[in-house]
Specification:
Layout lengths: L1 H19 L1 H7 L22 H10 L11 H10 L11 E6 L1 H4 L1 E2 L5 E3 L1 H4 L2 E2 L18 E2 L9 H10 L1 E3 L12 E4 L17 E2 L4 E2 L12 E6 L8 E3 L3 E10 L2 E6 L8
Parallel strand pairs: 1-13
Antiparallel strand pairs: 1-6, 2-3, 4-5, 7-10, 8-9, 10-11, 11-12, 12-13
Helix pairs in contact: 1-2, 3-4, 4-7
Amino acid sequence: MKIFKITINSILLFAAIATVLPGCKKLLGLERQKNYDYQKKTLDPNINMSAKEFLLKRADGTPEAPNDTVFRWMKKGLDYCGFDLSEYEKQGRTFIFLHNDAVRGFNSSGVMDKGLFFTFPIVVLDGSGNPVINPTTGLPQTRPATQWEDYSKQTVKNFFLYLIGEGIFNYYDLGADSKSLQSLLPPNSVTTKESLLGYWDPSLPGFNAAGGNGFDPQGKFTLRIQNNADIAPIVFNERSNSRSIGFVATNGVIHVYGTALYPSK
């Protein structure tokens, strides 16, 4: 009986508190609960604009989103080489976009440790304009690029031509096996040798002390789905996972990358 009495007193005490504190009503479930209907929403991949408009909007920002400049460094490269932006308005294409991190990425200490400028650094020249060679590797000594102007205009232009594929290949058009796309880059294009990209040999693949073409000899790149536990990125040339994918433009599809892209299969 003593145990029963304590239990009754406890219940009365909690009920008294609940009448004073609304929060306790919620805790005890005495307050009528509001009904919240779960509404399933699917993000609309349609951006209702051309790839060119999407690029410019998120390179320069807008009055509504002035800090949305994730493609600023991609746009800087296009401007430098005089790229014809009408290529981003033509129909039936797969566009590979470069997030700022894909061009120049920094770690938490503010040191550049990723991106195109770091992956394909600039060759160091001696007083006579000749590459300073590392005796161990046989490759030129290098330094990270700091601007697009460190590369030749033709190399930069060819790089961006390589990032536009013929045909539309979105997530549901791809599978676990690599799909080869023809880019706008003409076959047998060769990069100049002001950077380590000029020593990239797609036939190895790797850096070749004798130099390499840099670009895929067929002007093609590959895409495939990587089946992971949590995400399924689109892999570019078997090396780089996408940052975001499937932006459906009025003239094609856009996939965005945040790491350096190697321009060869």
